[in-house]
Amino acid sequence: MTADRVAEKVSPLREVMETREFELNLGPQHPATHGVYRALVKLDGERVLAMESVIGYLHRGIEKWAEYRTWQQATPIFDRLDYVGAVLNCHGYVGAVEKLLNVEIPKRAQYIRVVLDELQRIASHLVWLGTHGLDIGAQSVLFYAIREREAIMDLFEAMLGQRLLPNAYPIGGVRFDFPKGWVEVCRRFLEIMPKRIDEYEGLLTGNRIWRQRTIGVGVISAKDAIALSLSGPTLRGSGVNFDVRKAMPYSSYEDFDFEVPLGQNGDVFDRYLCRVREMRQSLRIIQQALDGMPEGELRGKVPKIIRPPVGEAYFTVEAAKGQLGFYVVSDGTDKPYRVHVKSPSFVNLQGIETMCKGNLIADVVAVIGSLDIVLGEVDR
Amino acid sequence: MSDEKEQPGSPVAPPAEQASTEAPAKPAAPKPPAPKPAVPAGPKKWESTGEVAENGATAALKAKFGEAVAGVKSPCKEAVVMVAKSRLIEVLAFLRDDPACAMDYLSDLTGAHFPNNDKKFEVAYHLYSLEHKHSLRVKVQLDDGEPCPTATGVWPGADWMEREAHDLLGVVFEGHPNLKVILLPEEFEGHPLRKEFPLGGKQEEAIRSNKYGKPVYLPEDIEEARKIIEEHRHDG
Amino acid sequence: MDFATLMQYVGWPLVKIVILLIPVFTVVAYMVWFERRLLAFFQSRLGPNRVGPLGLIQPIADGLKLFLKEDLVPLNARPFLFKIAPVFAFFPAFVGFAIVSWALPWVTPSGKVHPFVVADVNLGILFVLAISSLSIFGIILAGWSSGSKYPLFGSLRSASQMLAYEVPLTLSVVSVVLLAGSFRLSDIVAAQQKLGWYYLFPGILAFGVYLVSAVAESNRVPFDLPEGESEIIGFHTEYSGMRFAWYFVGEYANVTLISVLGTTLFLGGYDIPFVNDAALYAAHPELTSILGVCAFAAKAALFAVFFIWIRATWPRYRYDQLLKIGWIVLLPIALANLVLVALFKLWILR
Q: Who wins on pLDDT, A169 or C77?
């Protein structure tokens, strides 16, 4: 609106002064979008009228790539889906192949998988907590969460050889047993962790500013959430009790006693509480698994070259972000014919428009944080 | 059961523990380590093996639709049904609304390309019931270019999943509110998940066809260089 | 114009300005260092500790780096306004330091008395409030002249935020002025020296309002949405290099100024706590002045620590909540406080 234009249109002043819809590009490069995610937000002043998501910046063709490797060779790439929660992705894929092969996995291997899965879940939630807090302005939570995550990374490094993308499971079980002293270090971690979670909660849960930023923001009803196929804490925040570990137990989860935290209102605060409480429940599960660890083999009977029967299988795990599903189609050869990943972040991201409509632009960042998306998973 | 894997087209079913390199022949095998299975004549069709599994949902479906739904074999005891395209939306809506099925959760919607089958594409709907805790897979077979009715009317969550199937496989969903590409760039040509699409994309083709045999040296003059860059901008 | 008047009105003030600005610049620069270190300690890490002992050369290194960067003016920007906008952020903060009295007057060996203040304006506090409002221009011009949506957004928010919090800030200052009976800062300190608790006791509500408004005025957490690095970025998105440094320094100068003013208004300024200043001054004037400056610095440091502490702890308010606090919560409290202070003065202090 330069001075000349104003001068031109002095008499129909209303034309110059009218407010219009304003389209803002929360571009692929933005510190708060947790990756390369682009949102085109139509604003009326500060209120969001509509929101369109543009994704695909991180599409790497993982599903196609898997078709060119043998069943076991394809395992490492699925770590790269949700790179923050890699062990769980591996479990999903390996579980699907094992389902197709009808392999019996020894109990000890199942318990070890549970321990590693839950540790990975805690690590993933810690990253979520830190970055979500950082988006809303609580800068210190990130550093505390990363400090704890380092402990988990050390445990992974000692056992699996890698911190972030460990390619944890072969088809049929686990590769290695616990190294000497690992269980003691893990138990010490389980001792200090509850106090640390209390620290995070002390900073956030009762904090009036945090509550004002998150309560009532990004609400989605249970009906909408189910219809949109949301999963994980995003769904449970709205009060829907769907946790794959309880509904379709795999890998001996039925042996463990743990709660599934549910929210009530389906807002950002409830999802936050769900995840924090899930961290505590994961600690319980690991404790029980370590206490009740059976003796036994580490791998089931799996042939050297894996050629599953012609057919398909769909296997889901409760990943940190939601229900992670692997649909594998085999044509009897040693390479997968088709692998499709149902990634929770991809499906959860569909709900963002429903959650953001009518809220202010500053809330969009809070909602994206509460969805806990990882673009590697969204785009595959 | 894992020992006997049927490999259609091979004259003998080799024991499962056999490695591809020499392994001591099992007394049960009639021959010493068999050579690679002979390539069968004609393209191999993909058809699932195993047994048909039933659950509450399939029973209700059979009761209502009879012949229109057919059970599909599954090697791992999953309930799978094949539906004709004309009755697809009816079946999906029935599954969602019928109290015995109550499949209110669409877990996944995906497609697969079977170039050797009669009908080239299959779209699979993975459904789950939060109440009864049973799951079902509904499949429908389509020809190349044949549109599939959209499931967004039944479950709004099918929105992006259908867009992805359309994007990567080329399956058209008619009635979809916003069938745009979702994972690929807008100007991308082709559907990568199809079997004939090379893994390396157009670049692989170009490399194989020697299009990029020689490196392109850019001239000193900026305008000339810009023109050459523009020419090659949309290659691969 | 003889030499004596020239010295009185031009010479000595210039000397005082130089003596004042060198420590003030250093303090502002080292505020950055202090904040980064303290924030790091809160966050279970160390902060800058490599560049020089304890990282003390870090601000110099940062300043040098910013100075040597390319001078970028975006294509869509309006060059003249873009270039002068940082000036408006930078100068008002430093001008405010001119009216603060740092200690009791300095008595030279020859018996001459020099007031420990650059310009003891009789409308001191009003002058500072007026000048510091100019910094809003820096923000608005920055946002508008950047030629891009995000800075415009950020600057509009920041401008209305600063306007919203100017009012409670001024009202809390007015209540102090009411108690002291004068706008001149040295008078305000002198009035506080008679009370045990300085103006914390009668002005506790005013102190609270002042603290909150101070944080909001200097765009710090929890009110730093306009600068919100993780949200709509802010009004200084398009600025880089030395121009960005002006804003940065301006912000820390603002924080320092607010701390210094808060100390003067509420914490007794250069009064040394638990010591009878008048007696000490009669006996050892130089010692009292020096200790006065030290006491002043310590009290101002308390403010700084408080600001950094809340930055480490609290999340950030959303924009509408921020404005609501300014207008709907702080304004009535400040007005009520004014009435209470007036009554207090009328009946109790007499």
A: A169
- Pick from C230, C311, C315: CB nearest A209: C315
Listed ranges A131-140, A320-329, C129-138, C291-300; the one with the highest mean pLDDT: A320-329
**Spatial separation of the C-alpha atoms in residues A125 and A283, rounded to whole Å:** 12
Q: Using the Cα atoms of residue C109, residue C114, residue C116 and residue C118 in order, give the sign of their dihedral.
A: negative
Q: Return the residue in A33, A42, A136, A365 with the most chain C beta carbons within 10 A, the one to mutate for interface testing.
A: A136
Q: What share of chain B is helix, strand, coil (3-state, %, to 5)?
A: 25, 15, 60
- Furthest C-alpha separation in chain C: 65
Q: How far is B221 from chain A (nearest CA, A)?
A: 33
Q: By three-state DSSP, how is residue C248 classified? A: helix
> What is the ipTM metric for this complex?
0.85
**Inter-chain contact A314–B44, Cβ cutoff 8 Å?**
no
CB atoms inside a 10 Å sphere around CB C167: 16
Select the residue of B75, B110, B184 nearest A327 (Cβ to Cβ). B110
A280 to chain B, closest Cα gap in Å: 25
Distance of alpha carbon B152 from its chain centroid, rounded? 20
Whether the pLDDT of residue B21 is over 70: the answer is no
- What residue spans of chain C are helical by DSSP H? 3-6, 12-42, 58-67, 79-96, 124-133, 135-145, 149-180, 185-193, 204-217, 241-266, 277-283, 285-313, 319-324, 331-344
pLDDT tens-digit series, residues A134-164: 888 888 899 999 999 999 999 999 999 989 9
Within 10 A of A179 (CB to CB), how many other CB atoms are there? 11
CB A219, CB A355: distance < 8 Å: yes
Amino acid at A257: D
A134 interfacial to chain C (CB closer than 8 Å): yes
* Mean pLDDT confidence for C18-39: 89
- List of chain A residues whose C-beta atoms are within 8 Å of the C-beta of residue B203: none
- The closest alpha carbon to B139, from B126, B157, B158, B154, belongs to B126
State pLDDT tens for residues C163-186: 889 999 999 999 888 888 888 888
Name which of C79, C216, C72 is nearest C144 in CA terms. C79
Nearest-CA residue of chain B relative to A64? B193
Cβ separation C313–A203 shorter than 8 A: yes
pTM above 0.95, yes or no: no
CA distance linking residue C74 with residue C266, whole number of Å: 44
Cis upstream peptide for C222 (omega within 30°)? yes
Distance CA C14, CA C27 (A): 20
Q: Provide the 3-class DSSP secondary structure of residue B104.
A: coil
Residue in the block written with tokens 């969903």 = B173
pLDDT-derived band of residue B20, with 50, 70 and 90 as boundaries? Answer: very low
Non-local CB neighbours of A305 within 8 Å, separated by 6+ positions: A70, A334, B19, B20
Residue A143 forms contact with B (CB below 8 Å): no
Indicate yes or no: CB of A64 within 8 angstroms of CB of B192: yes
Q: What does the alpha-carbon distance between residue B175 and residue B197 come to, in Å, rounded to a whole number? A: 27
Chain A closest-CA separation from residue B231 CA (Å): 24
Cα separation, B93 vs C285, whole angstroms = 92
Q: How much is the pLDDT for A2?
A: 52
* End-to-end Cα separation, chain B, in angstroms: 46
CA-based nearest distance A103→chain B, Å = 8
| Residue in the block written with tokens 């050869």 | A333
> Whose CA is closest to C337, among C237, C213, C243, C230?
C213
Residue A42 token pair: 């139509």
pLDDT tens, residue by residue, C291-324: 888 888 998 999 899 999 998 888 888 888 888 9
Tokens representing C338 are 């004014």
